Amino acid sequence: MKHPLPAQPAHICVLRLSALGDVCNLVPTVRALQRQWPDARITWIIGRGEHSLLAGLPGVEFVVYDKSTGLAGMRAIWRELRETPFDVLLHMQQSIRASVLSLGLKARVRLGYDRARAKDWQTWFTNRQLTPHPKAHVLESFMDFARELGVDDDRLEWGIPLPDAAREEARQFLAGRPALVISPCASPRLRNFRNWSAEGYAAVIEHAWRHHGLTTFLTGGTSAQEVEMCERIAAGLSEAVPVNLLGRTSLKGLLAIIDEARMVIAPDSGPVHMANAMNTPVLGLFATTNPERAAPWCWREHVVNRYPDAVATYLHKPLDEIVWGTRVRHEDAMSLITFEDVIHRLDALLALTADHEKSTRGVSHDV
Q1: Among the residues of 263-338, which ranges form H helices?
Q2: pLDDT tens, 34-47?
Q3: What's the predicted TM-score (pTM) here?
């Protein structure tokens, strides 16, 4: 028997800790919930870095969990919320860590993914599951939680706030220059293989400068992988001079830079979804992950998509014979993306968006 869903929830708990791209994709679901029940309280349990990106989101009470604190950090949250009963817990993080954290929360209904989408035994920790939605995009999967609760208005809206300090940070770095933001590296996870070549990025940077007058701003963290990548990119340049911002921006500052940029180029990683949230034209590079599941939603028709080729080359199967969401874990898969692939998309997208009007509130789209 299904646990009945609340018809008029007074207090909703959203449990999604990470990652940067995923929390950006989740914001429209929160907005849909707010439109449906403007008087409902929404408490979002979120990771520390992700909170620094979304801090100030109107109408949301954030409870921050630092995963480095482990079980002690969970106990602190349980103590903080021990007198807080939720009408419904939206369990949107498919990880054992999040599921353990959910055990100390008081909720009548614990809504999680259906069995086909659930991972890490998530269904053991929920008492109500989503209606199945085969081959759903990540953003659609999040919106399915609102739909399950009875939300009909699923238009997409972000409105991630940017404080004046972040705007000033962006102004100082950009200095009025038309910007191409390139975040060359995805998170350094085991057998991730989402990064394109330094030589390819260098050629694109030269092309963007010579043909479009764009100054490239390289963004990311200070890991050895990212530092080495940017050094190799710089070594391959002859005319263009990019600005290296590795480790020099806050997350809000990076979001402000992305908001002002003419375009963002990155592999499947947080910055493509940050650009999507800010309505900045974005060119995603996809070969090891399926863009039909993970591309920046509003710009998904403009990605470079070599995923079908990677599946055929390295998994030796057609697309219709692999499990939805399968990753191609081969270190050479991203090499299927050519320089010509990228500049063709870059030129076309710049031409298409020549008169692109931005809004820091985000744009409304149908899912």
Answers
A1: 270-277, 291-294, 307-310
A2: 999 999 999 999 99
A3: 0.95
